[in-house]
């Protein structure tokens, strides 16, 4: 036995017990961790939900003495929570763009200042809720107020502590905010000597195209959700209504706003106003409910943009230009670019020419070349996608003398506006950009998400605060038209179009089928001709289908490939129905051919309201030679019997397949018809063979007769004379 080792172990054991006793004593003297320091553990279950209702004021000025936060907490756990308290704490002001980007994630330190805890509720059972209100001084010492003593953008944290049943006090819920501080008592922010020039895009874009087809003079929508969006309280209603209300009394705000409009949305809303149908899941249609709302919405939009309001017309249906260009669907791409004419025709306003706001803020070189073929191009671009820029924006993109210009959209503000519940972060970024980042005098173009969904009261706050910025000379309004059509300030090598941008496009599997359908459409319309009786222009029949292909490649379908494929398939089905209205038929029972050159009757039916040039083709059949049939013109809404020249080479029964196509032969019209023929005539070969056989028969018969005569004569010459004659 090693007594030395045992003794050492005994000493260690006694020392360990002494440390534990000392720690226990310290714990008893200092007490449990204070609520201020209690932190939730990662493995702890979520027991409480915190929802911030209101922050007042939204922007702190020298006249603000306190900050009030209201909200609601809900026990979403499985046990009672006692002693619920709230406090507000803040971090240091953000001093760089990187810090601002991190602050948008609401994970910045917030230990620089904090208020005292305020009781919220003594206890909450599972499922119960309680409202909270806390008012804290802007200044004040740590523990009584936020202690803010200088302007800046501050991260805030609303912190809820409580004591779950069977547990200790812990932080149970938090909510992060950004607080713009323009002034504190005695330290008001002065207006910059060179204010930033601010322009704002205001997107009026539906979530995705709704029109799937037309029936008579009415459009058929895929669903009736647009009716809800255009009606009071709907997303598009509030976007238009809040902008109209704010700009009607603030000319500076109006001059800074450019309304980005999807022509397909405006055209769809106008069509809805006249009555429309909605496709049901069972294939049937029913009347839509949004005619009145759509009519009011279009009228209000027309009133808003009448005058000097800047308007940006997106490509029709906010189409994926890059996907179409890369697929070689040039005519569909060009049709999508006709959206400005649609907007002008409906709203009576001329959109900004050559101005593009692409999804993801960039375009590939091929698409830029396609656009440049129509005139000068200005791209509202993600500055991170602009390659090797130098000098101030706008930038001339490419070689010297290029007609392509890039105007940067502020990415930081764009990120802040993706918050779907509040514009508070965006107000903080606006303050940082215009007052605290040291880039005074720059152009600042603000672009919310394309399908911006923000509560109406938050839209009102955003526009009201932006108007206050202009009124306080913290920024200057700038028309987007003045910005994009002014002189370029710098240069850029190009726009980056990364593999990630390519992957985001409408995929090749969709555009490849689109090109096939489009080629068939073009071939069909080339075979159409205006009929003097119906006076229907052929293009008017095909145009709705071509716009259907445009809608099938909307950026609204990015990430929804199955829906894009379904829209292309829908156009293909409609086109097949149109093609099926031109067909060929057999005249009826089997046809008897009584002569060698009997013509074959074929009935061509055209149920389209335009004349059709058609090519008839008869299959090759042994014993029958069919002459090529010239292209025939079939009047609108009529049946025409065409006689195909043929030559019978033998008698008997024949089966001939008759097909119909466009003159090019690329598009088969209708289905193949089958002619049953019964020939009783002799063809040339039969007659020749019969003649030869007859001649041979005559020759052989003559030869045989000749031989008989000759044999008979020879026999008579050699026969002996009768005896009686000899005796004489």
UniProtKB/TrEMBL annotation:
Pfam families: DUF6049
InterPro entries in the cross-refs: DUF6049
Transmembrane regions: 681-700
Top-level taxon in the UniProt lineage: Bacteria
Leader peptide range in chain numbering: 1-38
Keywords associated with the record: Membrane, Signal, Transmembrane, Transmembrane helix
Name of the protein in its database record: Glycoprotein
UniProt organism field: Labedaea rhizosphaerae
């Amino acid at each position: 036995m090693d007594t030395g080792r045992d003794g050492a172990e005994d000493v260690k054991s006694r020392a360990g017990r002494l440390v534990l006793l000392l720690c226990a004593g310290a714990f008893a003297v200092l007490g449990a961790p204070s609520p201020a320091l209690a932190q939730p553990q990662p493995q702890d279950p979520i027991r409480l939900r915190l929802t911030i209702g209101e922050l007042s004021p939204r922007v702190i000025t020298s006249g603000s003495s306190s900050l009030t936060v209201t909200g609601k907490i809900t026990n979403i756990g499985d046990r009672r929570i006692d002693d619920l308290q709230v406090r507000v704490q803040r971090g240091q002001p953000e001093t760089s763009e990187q810090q601002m980007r991190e602050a948008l994630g609401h994970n910045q330190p917030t230990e620089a200042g904090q208020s005292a805890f305020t009781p919220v509720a003594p206890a909450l059972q599972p499922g119960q809720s309680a409202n909270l209100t806390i008012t804290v001084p802007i200044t004040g010492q740590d523990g009584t107020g936020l202690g803010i003593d200088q302007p800046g953008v501050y991260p805030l944290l609303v912190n809820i502590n409580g004591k779950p049943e069977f547990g200790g006090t812990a932080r149970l819920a938090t909510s992060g905010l950004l607080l713009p501080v323009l002034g504190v008592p005695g330290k008001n922010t002065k207006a910059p000597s060179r204010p930033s020039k601010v322009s704002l895009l205001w997107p009026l874009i539906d979530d995705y195209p709704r029109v799937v087809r037309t029936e008579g003079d009415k459009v058929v929508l895929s669903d009736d959700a647009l009716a809800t969006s255009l009606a009071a309280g709907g997303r598009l209603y509030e976007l238009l209504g809040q902008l109209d209300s704010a700009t009607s009394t603030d000319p500076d705000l109006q001059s800074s706003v450019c309304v980005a409009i999807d022509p397909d949305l405006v055209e769809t809303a106008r069509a809805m106003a006249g009555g429309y149908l909605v496709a049901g899941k069972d294939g049937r249609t029913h009347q839509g409910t949004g005619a009145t709302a759509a009519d009011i919405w279009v009228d209000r939009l027309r009133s808003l943009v009448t005058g000097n309001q800047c308007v940006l017309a997106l490509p029709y249906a906010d189409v994926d230009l890059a996907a179409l260009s890369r697929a070689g669907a040039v005519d569909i791409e060009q049709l999508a670019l006709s959206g400005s004419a649609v907007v002008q025709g409906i709203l009576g306003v001329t959109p900004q020419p050559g101005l593009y706001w692409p999804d993801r803020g960039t375009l590939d070189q091929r698409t830029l070349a396609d656009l440049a073929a129509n005139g000068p191009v200005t791209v509202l671009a993600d500055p991170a996608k602009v390659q090797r820029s130098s000098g101030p924006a706008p930038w001339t993109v490419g070689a010297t003398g290029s007609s392509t210009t890039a105007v940067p959209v502020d990415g930081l503000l764009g990120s802040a506006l993706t918050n779907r519940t509040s514009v508070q972060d965006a107000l903080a970024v606006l303050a940082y950009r215009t007052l605290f980042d040291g880039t005074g005098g720059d152009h600042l173009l603000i672009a919310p998400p394309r399908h911006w969904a923000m509560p109406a009261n938050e839209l009102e706050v955003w526009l009201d605060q932006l108007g206050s910025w202009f009124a306080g000379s913290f920024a200057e309004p700038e028309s987007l038209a003045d910005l994009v059509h002014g002189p370029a300030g710098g240069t850029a090598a190009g726009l980056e179009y990364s593999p990630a941008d390519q992957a985001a496009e409408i995929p090749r599997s969709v555009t490849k089928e689109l090109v096939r359908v489009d080629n068939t459409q073009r071939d069909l319309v080339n075979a159409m001709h205006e009929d003097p009786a119906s006076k229907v222009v052929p293009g008017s029949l095909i145009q709705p289908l071509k716009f259907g292909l445009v809608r099938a490649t909307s950026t609204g379908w990015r990430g929804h490939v199955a829906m894009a494929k379904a829209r292309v398939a829908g156009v293909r089905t409609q086109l097949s129905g149109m093609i099926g209205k031109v067909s060929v038929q057999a005249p009826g029972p089997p046809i008897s051919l009584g002569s060698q050159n009997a013509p074959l009757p074929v009935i061509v039916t055209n149920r389209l309201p335009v004349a059709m040039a058609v090519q008839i083709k008869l299959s090759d059949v042994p014993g029958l030679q069919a002459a090529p049939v010239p292209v025939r013109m079939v009047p609108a809404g009529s049946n025409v019997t065409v006689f195909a020249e043929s030559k019978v080479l033998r008698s008997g029964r024949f089966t001939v397949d008759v097909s119909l196509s466009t003159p090019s032969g690329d598009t088969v019209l209708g289905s193949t018809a089958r002619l049953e023929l019964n020939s009783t005539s002799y063809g040339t070969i039969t007659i020749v063979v019969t003649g030869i056989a007859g001649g041979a028969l005559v020759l052989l018969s003559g030869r045989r007769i000749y031989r008989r005569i000759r044999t008979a004569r020879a026999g008579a010459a050699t026969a002996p004379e009768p005896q009686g004659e000899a005796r004489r």
